[in-house]
Amino acid sequence: MAVNESIDILNSAYLAVEYIDSFLPDNPLQQPFKNAWNYMLDNYTKFQIATWGSLIVHELSYFLLCLPGFIFQFIPYMRKYKIQQDKPETWEKQWKCLKTLLFNHFCIQLPLICGTYYFTEYFSIPYDWERMPRWYVLLAQCFGCAVIEDAWHYFLHRLLHHKRIYKYIHKVHHEFITPFGMQAEYAHPLETLILGAGFFIGIIVFCNHVILLWAWVICRLMETIDVHSGYDIPLNPLHLVPFYAGARFHDFHHMNFIGNYASTFTWWDRIFGTDYQYISYQEKEKNQELLTEKKSK
Predict the structure, then answer these.
(1) pTM of the model
(2) DSSP codes joined into one string, 116-165
(3) Which residues cross the membrane (predicted)?
């Protein structure tokens, strides 16, 4: 009964969104995007699209999303939004990060990306424009992927913090107590494989078009780069996502090493009480701010 009710609710929500979408004006970018997509299908093989297309989407998205945080360090006005203001980025750390990052991208992730074509063929995942899901379906699928990846990340990330294995794998990622955007995928190769596996579970569950692969890549990178940015920017649209953890939540994990293990949402840490140190830290900060305000009056 409960399952049927849930299905009815989801169907009703889908119909409601579809009804609202029918009143929205036509997207002026849709036709150029359709033309570009069909041009790609006409001029490249599925293997080329799945492999090199996925690589280009990943690399462009990663470094473009890292760019704002990189620029912020040169803008004095943005310093007030930096979470750990007493620990600025250094060229030495950023260069070290970039070298490891490029190794992971091209020696670990690229071989995995090369399997994308075979994955889409095995599951008969379409590439054509006609079967591409609507924007709201893609959005819902990406949210579903994020929920699944977040659960995987919480438990495996927490395991990597176990004292018997921490120094062999996850310690690499924690070389930087003050995170910055580019450091999001700075990790031991084994960690890239272990935690990265959570990315593919949602794809196996939801993928009904190759566009979801790319949409989920962009969404996942947007989230992980944001939480590693080291900046808590006001009016961040990601804060509109329900239960979104954000940069302060994950920045505390790098600063404290214990707790706040989830990647995107706050519920697993809340359920298992692994956010108690973060909550205590927040309360101390609030009390300190109140004392400062009283003294200034």
Answers:
(1) 0.89
(2) HHHHHHHTT----STTPPPHHHHHHHHHHHHHHHHHHHHHHHHHHTSTTT
(3) 60-79, 100-120, 135-156, 192-217
* Cβ atoms 84, 38 nearer than 8 A: no
Q: Mind listing the pLDDT tens digit for each residue in 204-261?
A: 999 999 999 999 999 999 999 999 999 999 889 999 999 999 999 999 999 999 999 9
277-286: per-residue pLDDT in tens? Answer: 999 998 988 8
**End-to-end CA distance of the chain, in Å?**
60
Assess contact for 48 and 95: CB atoms under 8 A: no
